[in-house]
Amino acid sequence: MTEAPSIQWFPGHMAKTRRLMRESLRLVDIVVEVIDARIPISSRNPELPELVGKKPRIILLNKCDAADEAITQKWCEYYKERGITALPTDCRSGRGIKQFVPAVKEVLRPLLERRAQKGMQGAPIRMMIVGIPNVGKSSFINRMAGSRRTKVEDRPGVTRGRQWVNLDNGIDLLDMPGILWPKFEDKRVGEYLAFTGAVKDDVVDIELLAMRLLELLNGRYHEALCQRYKLTDEETAEIEAYDLLELVARKRGMLQSGGQVNTERAAIAVLDEFRSGKIGRITLETPWKPEQQSSAWEE
User: Against a cut of 0.90, is the pTM above it?
Assistant: First the structure.
């Protein structure tokens, strides 16, 4: 098996975001954590439970349309067992968004009842939206607002400052910049974040990253991989990672002068197609594999 690359990426503005988050918690009623449904472990900041403390919280398993539906449901059950409400959503298509506000009101029922007793029914519900880069926070806010209120790009680190978005239904959203953490203790975390684009491509070896992804997909989603790249079981049996990348390049006709395969071009294509869901609905982390669950992610 190809060795996982060591990936570390902690831009300075993320340290500032962590301080800003602590200072802003007193302004909100609930924290909405957006994670990537394809990598629910790696796309959660392990520092968040400590940062949030006892503040009510709800989790959005975003990009669920690109994730394995059965496994996403298992993740929702996993969080429910731990007393946390989790909803599968896809902010670009709008899937699951209608269930969001009712779920928030259920989580905040004790607070809302206290407000009603004090005659404060009109007070807005204030939410802090948090998550690592590129999990879809801005897409979620834009979907809730019904317009492109915040800048959305398919690359990490776009939202840099704290932004309030006031909705018409008595809800105020506080958008925080995406925040990673200083060191990825498990190499797989950095690798999985790179797969999904949460870590910038220019800080990783694209070909090595694509080789690792193809290796994983060949083992876990073999049929989807073969269907996408017109591979056969015989061609992919016991194949080395580089040979698999080269095979994909040949199948796609990605050849340079002299007939040499362009593995860099193939690597870019593989990563782009995984991120856009074109290879299939894929989840790389499951709640029933304890070895994937580092103690740093425990609630």
Answer: no
